[in-house]
Specification:
The complex is a heterodimer. Chain A is of the alpha/beta class. Chain A has 11 helices and 14 strands. The longest helix of chain A is centred in the C-terminal third of the chain and has 18 residues. Chain B has 2 domains: 281 residues, no CATH class; 118 residues. Chain B is built from 16 helices and 6 strands. In chain B, the strands form 3 sheets. Chain B has a two-stranded antiparallel sheet with strand order 1-2. Classes of the chains: A alpha/beta, B mainly alpha. Chains A and B meet through α2, β6 and α3 of A and α1 and α11 of B.
């Protein structure tokens, strides 16, 4: 089921076009990544999706409700963190959640708050004032307020800002869990690795336009697999590969990437030892989205230079 | 309706958990007590026993008369003789009031004053003069006492000013008059002027506005809370001043006469201007009633300041700027009002209408600047309230229209 539909969205402020022709669809249970460098227009787009900024052109529909004409119905299905999840620092975490739960019209507030607080693991400190919280705890409180209304669409803008590696790992787990329960999750980030790890699909935004939209699994699959080896006699290996018309890529004087499948690795290692080539290390390399991202951004740069 | 109730609950929760509102309430109470006490001690220094004032007057005038009797100006002699006669009559009245025999004394004084007024009106020189105005006032006051069937406060009229026995009510009127043009508006601004902009500064506004409640309702809830808190502050200020003055002066004097809506007309008497109070067209009410109207007026004036602050709060994303601007308006306004500017349109200015002293309640201050006379004094209470209502409606409407459409870019 389609939870979020963004159609030909554009925002102009004065003469400056911030974003244009933004087209996105996010389905139930899907984690959708919105990737782009800082200043590409991610936050502006998110603010238009949640109705903080009025679009110059285009429309946003959430669960079929238009954000401009049917805002209140649309927002009933949305939980969001927009940029830093600033909450009221002079109130306790609990009072903050009471505040947001009232606005969301949640029946049986106390019970629901207890649930989300347990989910984001903030139970111990929930009655402390937010000003005593660490950045990570504030992020988790931000997530808690977004989850209060059991949203069908969860929007997370740079959610891992300020989280330590452990926090990031935990966060990925939470997002996966929510998606598995059927929540459509829309995550924005400028960090590729992060998106690759949690997203099903990724849109890349550059200079206010979406330059590509990719299915993460397909990208990784399509690019096949490579093995990176470190050897002492690189010339010997090269000669052999050339003989057998196998493409390869030299990384430096003793490192190279070879496109072979995992199943062929043991045979290849045996072959090396037979020919007295000492293998120092071997690892499989998945060509990450980074390349994809780089390609697109590089293209754009190139275009600019040509123009 | 339920949505707005929720927003009100939330806004009050946020407000009461911040130190600021309690500091402002505390400061208001302390300043109210302080001002009342200062005014009381000033009063104690000024106040003299009316009987002795009258005796001194008599002695002084008698001496002066002796001096000029032989070869003085006959007109001056006549003047002095008249003054002495008036003072003697006054002393007689005071004695009778002190003896508890006030009704016949007041009746006698009334007859005397009325005859005097009649004479004064015949004479072109005294037709428009301070002493004639004072006579009119004294007649009105004494008729008021008779009508109320209440013991008069000892009032002494001489020259161009009058000393009235101070009561908790008159002192409350004076202290409020001082506090309303600056103190209370600044306190209101401190509480209200960041009600929206503080959320923009903190960055909480964006998470507030993505709820399934419309912006208009959220702003309306904030507006209601602003008004309620302002009303609470006004009640606190008024009550503290009144109670402090009750403690200092006692509760006596609620029935004392107070002129309301006194207008002034500039008269040229022998080439020099005289500003004549039009007592005959003014309303005379017990001072307790006047204070009740005064409270209503200060409530509306405070809400006007609230509305203006509220507007700036929705326009600016910085709590500091949205607080500074209305503060500058109020402070600069009060400076402007103390200058002798003759712009008739200044009567529509918000600061002109903040304090009821010297606007629609008859001024207690003897000397008034030209500005007061030309722009302020001829505003009636109703007129002033109408102007203030304009200052409530216009900024509020702009605030709502602006906020409904506004792009929340940075907050």
């Amino acid at each position: 089921m389609e939870v979020l539909a963004v159609n030909n969205l554009a925002k102009k402020i004065g003469d400056k076009t911030i974003v244009s022709q933004i087209q996105m669809r996010v389905n139930q249970g899907e984690v959708y990544g919105f990737l782009g460098p800082n200043g590409a227009g991610k936050t502006t787009t998110i603010r238009m999706i949640v109705g903080l900024i009025k679009p110059t052109k285009g429309s946003v529909r959430i669960c079929g409700h238009d954000i401009e004409t049917d805002r209140e119905e649309a927002m009933k299905s949305v939980g969001a963190i927009v940029e830093n999840p600033e909450t009221y620092s002079y109130l306790s975490g609990y009072k903050n959640l009471i505040h947001y739960a009232r606005l969301a019209g949640i029946p049986n507030k106390e019970k629901r708050i207890k649930e989300v607080v347990t989910f984001v693991k903030l139970t111990d400190r929930i009655h402390d004032k937010v000003k005593t919280y660490s950045l990570g705890m504030r992020q988790r409180l931000g997530l808690a307020q977004a989850l209060l209304g059991k949203p069908k669409l969860l929007i997370l803008d740079e959610p891992t800002n300020g989280l330590d590696p452990e926090g990031i790992r935990e966060f990925r787990g939470l997002v996966r869990q929510l998606a598995d329960q059927g929540t459509a999750v829309f995550v924005s980030s400028h960090i590729l690795k992060e998106m690759e790890a949690i997203c099903d699909r990724i849109a890349i935004i550059k200079n206010g336009r979406i330059v590509t939209e990719q299915n993460v699994a397909k990208v990784l699959e399509g690019q096949g697999q490579k093995v990176r080896i470190k050897v002492d006699k690189i010339k010997k290996v090269e000669a052999f590969l050339q003989q057998n018309e196998i493409s390869y890529q030299v990384i430096d004087h003793n490192t190279m990437d070879i496109p072979i499948a995992e199943s062929e690795v043991s045979e290849f290692v045996r072959f090396l030892s037979m020919h007295n080539v000492n293998l120092r290390s071997i690892e499989t390399v998945k060509d990450s989205l980074e390349e994809l991202f780089f390609n697109f951004t590089a293209d754009e740069e190139g275009e600019k230079k040509n123009a | 309706m339920r949505d707005i109730g929720i927003v009100i609950l939330n806004e009050w929760m946020k407000m009461r958990h911040r130190l600021k509102i309690w500091l402002v309430f505390g400061m208001t109470i302390l300043l109210a007590i302080g001002f009342s006490y200062l005014s009381f001690s000033g009063d104690q220094n000024k106040a003299t026993d009316i009987a002795s004032v009258q005796k001194n007057d008599l002695a002084y005038n008698t001496k002066a008369l002796e001096k000029i009797k032989k070869n003085g100006n006959p007109e001056e002699i006549k003047e002095l003789e008249k003054a002495i006669k008036g003072t003697k009559q006054g002393i007689n009245t005071t004695e009778n009031i002190l003896k508890g025999n006030w009704k016949p004394a007041i009746q006698k004084q009334l007859e005397y004053d009325k005859a005097e007024l009649e004479n004064a009106k015949q004479d072109k020189k005294t037709l428009h003069s301070a002493s004639t105005s004072n006579l009119e006032k004294q007649i009105a006051f004494n008729e008021h006492y008779l009508k109320q069937d209440e013991h008069p406060l000892l009032t002494h009229n001489a020259g161009s000013f009058s000393i009235t026995e101070s009561t908790a009510y008159s002192a409350t009127k004076d202290v409020l008059g001082l506090g309303l043009s600056l103190l209370l508006p600044l306190m209101v601004i401190l509480i209200i002027a960041d009600i929206v902009s503080d959320e923009a500064t903190r960055g909480t506004l964006k998470l507030l506005l993505i709820r399934p409640i419309s912006r208009t309702k959220i702003l309306f809830g904030k507006w209601i809370v602003s008004i309620l808190v302002t009303a609470l502050l006004a009640v606190i200020f008024f009550t503290t001043v009144l109670l402090t003055n009750f403690a200092l002066y006692g509760t006596f004097g609620a029935h004392a006469p107070q002129f309301m809506d006194v207008s002034y007309i500039m008269q040229m008497v022998e080439q020099s201007p005289f500003v004549e109070p039009q007592y005959s067209q003014a309303t005379l009410v017990p001072i307790s009633e006047a204070l009740f109207y005064g409270f209503l007026h200060m409530l509306i004036a405070s809400i006007a300041i609230t509305s203006l602050s509220f507007l700036f709060s929705t326009i600016f994303a910085s709590a500091m700027i949205s607080t500074a601007i209305p503060m500058v308006i109020v402070v600069a306004g009060s400076v402007l009002l103390s200058m002798s500017l003759k712009f008739p349109f200044l009567r529509y200015f918000i600061c002109t209408n903040l304090s009821f002293s010297s606007t629609w309640l008859e001024s207690t201050y003897a000397s008034m600047s030209d500005f007061y006379l030309l722009t302020r004094t001829n505003i009636t209470m109703t007129g002033s309230i109408m102007i203030l209502l304009g200052w409530i409606v216009v900024p509020t409407v702009i605030a709502f229209i602006h906020f409904r459409k506004k792009d929340i870019l940075n907050a």
